[in-house]
Amino acid sequence: MRAILEAAEQVFAQDAGASMEQVAEAAGLTRITVHRRFANRQALLEALAVSAKQQLIDAIKEARPDAAPALVALHRVTANVLRVKNTWRFTLSHANAHTPAAAALWDEINTHTVDLMNRAQREGLLAPHADLEWTRQVYYALLSEAINRPGAEQDPAAQDPDALATLVIDTLLHGAGPRG
């Protein structure tokens, strides 16, 4: 199953309209084997969505955000999420099936993010009056922009998750204005 999902991610990233047969070939399997697991292309896209979102949740939990000050936790979570987003670029950047399972995982991701934003606010990283829903949306946008930076594919150093996490957090907390 994992080989099929990884192959699908790669194939769809190159050609969003690729066939199940192309996915099977990339996975080193027959089309029949892929169809045993996934009845059709839509089922495969749904499985990709669930798998990628579950990996985001695992990355957040692996960062152990409750075991460190908010700034450290935010950096760990951001770097881990960027690693996952880099691996699952197609799936996480395209509108795909929103099954109840995928929606529930997305709700869990949002809950983890808002919890971390609440801690950041309590610890003084975010202004007391900051709109945390807006801050969450801006954070997600910064994550996407960090992954999709122009020229990043040609410069491996520009894709370093820790460096990108620092850039995302610095921009989130300080914006682009002058420092006092």
UniProtKB/TrEMBL annotation:
Keywords (A to Z) from UniProt: DNA-binding, Transcription, Transcription regulation
UniProt GO MF annotations: DNA-binding transcription factor activity; transcription cis-regulatory region binding
Short name of one Pfam family: TetR_N
Domain HTH tetR-type: start-end pairs: 1-56
DNA-binding region in chain numbering: 19-38
Protein name: TetR family transcriptional regulator
Organism expressing this protein natively: Streptomyces griseoruber
